[in-house]
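Researcher: Next entry in the queue.
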Amino acid sequence: MGNEPVFAIEQNTEVLIDNAAITAKVAEMARQIEADFEGESVLLVGILKGSIHFLSDLARHLRLDSQLDFLQASSYHGARETTGLVQIRKDLDINIAGLNVILVEDIVDTGTTVNHLRELLLTRKPKTLRIAALLSKPDAHRVDAQVDYVGFEIPNEFVVGYGLDYGERYRNLPYIAILRNQDDNSQPELFAG
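Model: Structure for this entry, 193 residues:
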């Protein structure tokens, strides 16, 4: 038994990646970023809301001078699958011109959102722009998503936990899980990022 929290919502989930594996992978990704930006500052841009745990853990593992900012983008608009139309709900507070920017994404599903955000941020003239994604679903990609740092490639399943949600639920799970047996009639709003 240990000190693991018990979650009432776990009956609908199947653990895909446990917390220990996530922690190790995030630390490994931080070392890769440090090697690429040794002696430089970086701006970590978290895509709300899903990236919040990943961003927080990545920032704590990163031994570089860094700042944080956030974007919120939606491409789901109340469905379990992306609509392909990306809407910016919250823009950056920091001017990124001349900065080393790392876009921190929870999951690259179709690639639509991350490509849209890459194009948008490049118009703002950062010194460099890299993308770090904890998860990628290669079988779901509809466009070629250029991601520089990938934690895990996963099957084309609907996943929750560690920041990812279904109708704003499951974000607090300390692991990544496949969500099973959900009522598709509820149509909660899902946020990419």
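Model: The domain at 8-179 is CATH 3.40.50.2020 (Rossmann fold).
Researcher: Noted, moving on.
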